[in-house]
Amino acid sequence: MRLFKNLILVYFSFLILCTACRSDLPRPQGQQVYLPTASKNNVYIVNEGMFNNGNGAISHYNILTGEVLEDVYQKVNGKPIGNICQSMCVVDSVGYIVVNNSQKIIIVSLPSFKKVGEINNLQSPRYFLPINKDKAYVTDLYSNAIAIIDLNTNKKISQIPCNGSTEELILFNDKVYVTNTRTDKLYVVDANTNLLEDSIAIGFCSSSIRLDKDNKIWAYCTGDFDKKINGGLYCIDPATNKVIQRFALTTPLNTWDRLDINGSKDTLYYMNNGIFQLPIAATQLRPVLLIPLAGRNFYGLGIDPINGEVYVADAIDYAQRGMIYRYKTKGSNAELHASFKASVIPSDFVFY
């Protein structure tokens, strides 16, 4: 869970600011800039920014031209996003930007990126999931509950009690499957009644979750270093809510390790001191090391759903601008196609 990592680094970040190694360049106020079109050739990069520094940002990358546009929201709206830009969800032509430590969700129109609304009254939001045209769920780090949002008014109208810190979540067949970083349970919520109806015993500290082409759910659990609990990858059949496949890893993972899936939903990709590839049909854990760590600090992972290219974010030292690596893949081989700088602590990707 990235926020915990940022908390650990607060003191380190403070020292960097105090020594004034460099001053951040002033940000233009209200400057109108070139913006992408809804062409499926855009990648939005979520940059958390340093804890309590308020420099969270969204970068835009043009797949065709290689052009990188920094801090799109700031340039269009004349104000920063806020403290810890956690995640972003796109629904048709609307973007929902979750700003964790600022306790809000900013709503933008796409592709203009003009702010059109804001959702408040949230304690520490993490991930946004639309349930239907009228309702969305938002997970939370501290509130022991999932917020219910009315999309017509953009207000929190209720919440679903859920013990622990909730992270990524997916919707399938009117059921919402919710990861939890403080338990060994995957929670199941009835999307019609908004009631927590089941919990599935998996590994400890689940954070990433994906649905494959066979309508099976995969959850990635990091384990816990202090408790000597190893990480693991679990496959759940939503028809029975039973674990049908489990791959135990030999060590606890970093809490920011990620799971993703390609556009055809037949191959998993995950971070564990490098980027690994695993077919969903695997019956034994024999993953392919696709991209070695090679001294870098991998922090984010995204798979282009159209061409299968792999994007990896390198947070470097959590203080300077991070690096993005774009790989073309063929089978179990990955070739570096491009690299470029994003903002501070890049962590996630949205393909639009």
Q: What is the highest CATH level, the class?
A: Mainly Beta
For the largest beta-sheet, the strand count, sense and barrel status come to: 4 strands, antiparallel
For the secondary structure, the number of strands is 28
What is the percentage of strand-forming residues?
A: over 45%
The main sheet orders its strands as 3-2-1-28
Mean pLDDT rating = 89
| Uncertain residue segments | 1-32
Structural class based on helices, strands and sheet pairing: mainly beta
What is the third-level CATH name, the topology? Methylamine Dehydrogenase, Chain H
Give the N-to-C terminal Cα separation: 25 Å
Number of domains: 1
Coarse shape? globular
User: Percent helix among the residues?
Assistant: under 10%
Number of contiguous helices:
3
